[in-house]
Write a structure and sequence with these properties.
The protein is of the alpha/beta class. The protein has 3 helices and 3 strands, in the order αβαβαβ. It has a single domain, classed as 3-Layer(aba) Sandwich (Rossmann fold).
């Protein structure tokens, strides 16, 4: 199966969902390269790409950062990266306090 087919399938799932939860481990204080590659492949759906494909509006997005140890700035950086990605897909980022 091609990368384009896989990404299209994931974006179809995003389109169908009301809530999207992204979970990422810490890899050198940020999201792993595989996650970054996924984000790059989603560029055709990002609002910075003209013209761009869209997913239905009104989505809520959450992020979970996983790491060992007490270094909270690493978790905040991961969550910030995911929030940035959601912003380009026009997914409303939500914070659980």
């Amino acid at each position: 199966m091609s990368d384009a087919t896989v990404i299209q399938g994931i974006m179809n799932e995003f389109d169908y969902a009301d809530v999207i939860v992204a979970v990422s481990p810490s890899y050198w204080a940020d999201i792993p390269g595989q996650f970054k590659a996924f984000i790059d492949r989603c560029t055709p759906w990002c609002n910075t790409h003209d013209p761009h494909a869209t997913i239905r509006p009104g989505k809520k997005g959450y992020a979970i950062a996983l790491r060992t140890g007490p270094n909270m700035p690493e978790c905040e950086r991961i969550i910030s990266s995911i929030e940035h990605f959601y912003g380009h897909l026009e997914i409303e980022f939500r914070v659980i306090v």
